[in-house]
Prior knowledge:
The chain is of the alpha/beta class and about 290 residues long. The protein has 11 helices and 10 strands. It has helices at about 15-25, 30-35, 45-55, 65-75, 75-100, 135-145, 150-160, 160-170, 180-205, 215-230, 255-265, and strands at about 1-10, 25-30, 105-110, 125-130, 170-175, 235-240, 245-250, 265-270, 275, 285-290. The protein has a 5-stranded parallel beta sheet, sandwiched between helices. A 5-stranded mixed beta sheet has the order 6-7-10-9-8. A hairpin with a 2-residue loop joins strand 6 (about 235-240) and strand 7 (about 245-250). Helix 1 crosses helix 9, helix 3 (about 45-55) packs antiparallel against helix 5 (about 75-100) and helix 6 crosses helix 7. The mean pLDDT is about 90.
Amino acid sequence: xxxxxxxxxxxxxxxxxxxxxxxxxxxxxxxxxxxxxxxxxxxxxxxxxxxxxxxxxxxxxxxxxxxxxxxxxxxxxxxxxxxxxxxxxxxxxxxxxxxxxxxxxxxxxxxxxxxxxxxxxxxxxxxxxxxxxxxxxxxxxxxxxxxxxxxxxxxxxxxxxxxxxxxxxxxxxxxxxxxxxxxxxxxxxxxxxxxxxxxxxxxxxxxxxxxxxxxxxxxxxxxxxxxxxxxxxxxxxxxxxxxxxxxxxxxxxxxxxxxxxxxxxxxxxxxxxxxxxxxxxxxxxxxxxxxx
Length: 292
């Protein structure tokens, strides 16, 4: 299974990218859609929101009045944190159900608006950031969604900055041209990187002729992915120049972690050595037992 995190600022056009990925065969797990599902009338999620923010967030028919909730929840950090504490566990549980049902050979694309803010990027083989300039996003939100300009700017200000998104981006997809151009870019990404990466992960195979790219931000992402993959089986992880060294925890042998690393996109190439399955970037991982 290849897991891709898809995100970008509100109004950046993630839905266009997600639709094209779905047409190419990906299974889309849409965070926004699930977030609406878990607060439908009669759900525990909606009841919890009404208790936390008051009955004023409910429409006359008992459904969630989203603008009313947004006016409260995005007004300050404490209110936003309260909202997230209610909805995020519900969205996470439903997302896990959909991923489990997709099967081991699937390409899963999780469309997560707050992927960067919630620091979940290391959970994915790849993170795709869809980018549009903030002023253009305000224009889109006001023009196509009918959002008040002040609300649009408040939503954007509450989200991650471009610099924070770049730090976690494996793919920076600029959605500033025509829709056809964006779809063409997604198809090229699928053919050149996503499809072969997925096939390599399933086969536990390293990528052939991947370019070696030196990027300190990637080294941090690489270390994070290895920690997620290995958990308590690792005692330390360091990465520099897309080369990582993992020291295993006491009593853990290389054989114990081979399957975990292969599933995370690091295929075995020899005793204690692994190479990345991503055709977009060469990666080397060396595993050593702990020596006190």
